[in-house]
Specification:
Elements: E1 2-3, E2 11-12, H1 16-21, E3 23-29, E4 40-46, E5 52-54, E6 59-63, E7 68-72, E8 74-76, E9 80-85, E10 90-91, E11 98-102, H2 105-110, E12 112-120, E13 129-137, E14 142-143, E15 162-163
Parallel strand pairs: 6-13
Antiparallel strand pairs: 1-2, 3-4, 5-8, 7-11, 9-12, 10-11, 12-13, 14-15
């Protein structure tokens, strides 16, 4: 676990057990100091778990007629997180785990926006990021045709809609 092994200056590689325990005591002992006895000193190495930030699913499909999307970030081994964007929209609170992102005009034009959630309060660890891709899907368009006036005996009536696939209802 030490490299090089027999040196006053070395690198230590924690074992999986050290990591699971969260700390390990390391001892430095003098060598080659005969006739005097060896002398030792200890240090406690505390191993902090890495922070994890989760922005939610990797991607989310939202109809482009929506003006916003609700987000729910989570963190582990961190005190909180904040949101960033690669788009031109805004957050209701970019420092809250749960927030609402309001799409900007270019988000809607581009049809997609990447939102990044970043852990904070990570102790001595680096921040962790997670990204969610919001895909803005075009809404379907249908046209039932013009209103019509018919005689009571003109049955059946042929209806011809246009646009996306759809079904008729009512009556």
């Amino acid at each position: 676990n030490f490299f090089p092994l027999n040196s006053i200056s070395t690198m230590y590689f924690p074992t999986p057990q050290d990591t699971a325990n969260g700390q390990v005591i390391l001892t430095l002992t003098t060598t080659g100091n005969s006739p005097c006895p060896s002398v030792s000193d200890n240090l406690t190495l505390t191993i902090t778990p890495i922070p994890i930030a989760d922005a939610g699913p990797p991607s989310l499909n939202v109809c482009n007629i929506e003006n916003s999307v609700d987000l729910n970030g989570t963190v582990i081994n961190a005190t909180g997180g904040f949101w960033g964007t690669h788009g031109d929209g805004t957050y209701s609170d970019d420092n809250a785990l749960s927030t609402t992102y309001t799409f900007g005009p270019n988000d809607k034009i581009n049809g997609t926006v990447l939102l990044t959630f970043i852990s904070q309060g990570n102790g001595n660890c680096q921040f962790y990021t997670d990204t969610i891709r919001i895909n803005l899907t075009n809404s379907s368009v249908v046209n039932a045709g013009p209103n019509r006036v018919i005689c009571r005996t003109d049955f059946p009536i042929t209806l011809q809609g246009s646009g996306a696939n759809g079904i008729w209802s009512g009556g």
